[in-house]
Each structure stands twice: as C-alpha cells, then as structure tokens.
Amino acid sequence: MNTETIKTADKPTQGFEICHDVYIKASQKAVFDAVSLPAHLVNWWPNKCVGEPAQGTVYNFYFTPEYDWQAEVTKCEPNRSFYLKMTKADADWVPTSLGFDMIESKEGEVQLKFWHKDWLARNDHFRRSSFCWAILLHGLKNYLEQGIVVPFEERE
Q1: Distance CA 85, CA 97 (A)
Q2: N or C: which terminus of the chain has fewer CB atoms within 10 Å of its end residue's CB?
Q3: % of the chain residues with pLDDT over 90
Q4: In a domain, 4, yes or no
Q5: Confidence band of 13 (pLDDT split at 50, 70, 90)
Q6: Closest CA relative to residue 18, chosen from 128, 144, 139, 111
C-alpha cells in the first residue's frame, strides 16, 4: 500500500487527506455552531444528528438506514476547532478523522479550514468524498451567509 506522511492540525498522520478552505461571512461562533451542533448540522450535512460538542462524546450522523454512522469528538475548542474520529461508517471512512478549524480572517469573515485525513487509498470513494465535501461546504457557506437550507434529498 502506498501511503505518505501528512501533517494536519498539528498531528502527523499516515494516509491521504482531503482539504478545503472556505471563507464565510459570519462570526466564529456561528461557524462553530454550524459544524458542531446537531440543530445546525442537519441544515447542510446529515439528515438527522445527535451529539454534544464535548471531547469524548459520540455523535450519530444518520443519512439513510444504510448510512447510520457514528463518530467520537476528539477535540472541541469552542469557536476554534472541532474534530471527529469516525467509529461506525463505511469501511473506507472508519479509519478516518475529520476536522474544522476556524480562523478570523478579517472583520466579519472566518476562514474555515476543513480536513478529512487518514484515508488508506486514493480510490473512487476518496475522490467522490472530496467532491461531496466541496459541495457540502458550499452549502454550509450558503446556510450561514444567506440562510439557505438545501433539502437533504438534494444534497450530494
């Protein structure tokens, strides 16, 4: 297996990584809430969600009966960082972790640095997930800036 060492969010990892930066006209609190609170997550990512933004807690991300996933919160710094380690998901996703780092880039705008690391292969699922994350993060931006909620059935 061909892997490379990657440095993400101050921890070196083995595997491959998806990265996206999004600039959002919103407060760091609003962005943090949108990526960590189930009431906001369901407006841009899963169909249903349960969880508490605190290190060590478990989130349930329900997409469909076949995609009823779980992840453990590995880092939670309000208004700064929110990281998850997948614990129940597709085989390609289980070894992975994903995270959101928020940096105020200028007055009223936040740079959201998203990463999804520890993929074991750059396979079709990796490529499809990278595309889906780009679409979903665009949906997050539109949700925060314009209040647009794309119905779950129309999300990638």
Answers
A1: 4
A2: N
A3: 87
A4: no
A5: low
A6: 128
